[in-house]
Specification:
The chain is α+β, with helices and mostly antiparallel strands. The chain has eleven helices and nine strands. The strands form three sheets. A five-stranded mixed sheet has the order 2-1-5-3-4. It is globular and about 60 Å long. The protein binds iron/sulfur cluster (2 copies) and FE2/S2 (inorganic) cluster.
């Protein structure tokens, strides 16, 4: 709860409830709660659980828009409950539901496993052929600021699933990879240290991959972290066509530094402290 104790308004929370063990279909239950300035939707749910209905279930962890656990549908928009203030989106009434395009485990808890399975399929890690280097690293790989910039924004994804919930294509094709896994594929494809693009093309280039996207852009509008999955998917489409036509430029090999002090030093970055061990 915020420190400011002044109640500013009463808001009706209309919350989707569903227990698959006892309910045939989801239903809506309403709670009228006092709301103070600064209260987030997550605070409101805690108020309900502590003071009105202890059976309400949802998922959360960090309370600060980092863990990606508390994605839900607020007034019809997929977003994070912990970084949405109630009075910013509601005057009298607020609807709170689970993220669409996922099965419901209970109440506001979506089953995100379909998303994580798709994410795993595209190999969301740096793939390299030189296994000896992976097992016995000889040095660090150098990446320029420009090379980092090419994938950085896609690396900000917290796997909350809001983009998946917003995607109209996923609503009609459950096998569509969806914006989060496709943006992750682009993030690793663009990494100069990675050599796994051809492997990922096996998944991103299928009829349920990047070309299934209609570029409505809802995913990018929904993303609470400013990631632009729709843009990532258009990059993927271009690369898939170039790879298919054998027109893709060879990726410049990433420079390996065999010890400290090599490569071009970046300006304004203090030197690392001396080793203590
Ligand atoms: S741009 Fe593509 S991935 Fe994003 S919501 Fe639209 S169809 Fe889905
Ligand atoms: S791209 Fe954005 S909306 Fe989608 S899972 Fe990542 S952080 Fe969430
Ligand atoms: S509780 Fe972690 S993102 Fe909301």
């Amino acid at each position: 709860m915020p420190e400011n104790n002044k109640t500013t308004r009463e808001i009706n929370f209309h919350v989707t409830r569903f227990n698959p063990e006892t309910d045939r279909t989801p239903y809506v239950k309403s709670y009228r709660i006092p709301v103070r300035e600064g209260m987030t939707v997550l605070d409101g749910l805690h108020y309900i659980k502590e003071n009105v209905d202890p059976t309400l279930a949802w998922r959360y962890s960090c309370r600060m828009g980092v863990c990606g656990s508390c994605g839900m549908l607020l007034n019809g928009r997929p977003t994070l409950a912990c970084n949405t203030q109630i009075l910013h989106i509601a005057n009298t009434d607020l609807t709170v539901g689970p993220l669409p395009n996922f099965e419901i485990i209970r109440d506001l808890v979506p089953d995100l496993m379909t998303m994580f399975d798709k994410h795993r399929s595209i190999k969301p890690f740096i793939v390299r052929a030189d296994e000896a280097e992976i097992n016995t690293a000889e040095g660090e790989f150098y990446q320029s600021p420009e090379e980092l910039e090419a994938y950085l924004q896609f690396a900000y994804c917290i796997k909350c699933g809001c983009c998946m919930a917003a995607c109209p294509t996923l609503a009609t094709d459950a096998r569509y990879l969806g914006p989060m896994p496709l943006a992750a594929a682009e993030r690793y494809d663009k990494d100069t240290r990675d050599e796994g693009r051809r492997d990922r093309n096996e998944f991103t280039g299928t009829s349920h991959g990047a070309f299934r996207c209609h570029y409505a852009g809802e995913c990018s509008r929904a993303c609470p972290k400013g990631v632009d999955p729709a843009k990532a998917i258009q990059y993927l489409k271009r690369q898939l066509v170039l790879d298919y036509l054998h027109l893709a430029r060879r990726k410049k090999p990433c420079q390996k530094l065999h010890g400290p002090g090599q490569g071009k030093p970046l300006p304004n970055i203090p030197a690392a402290p001396a080793k203590t061990v």
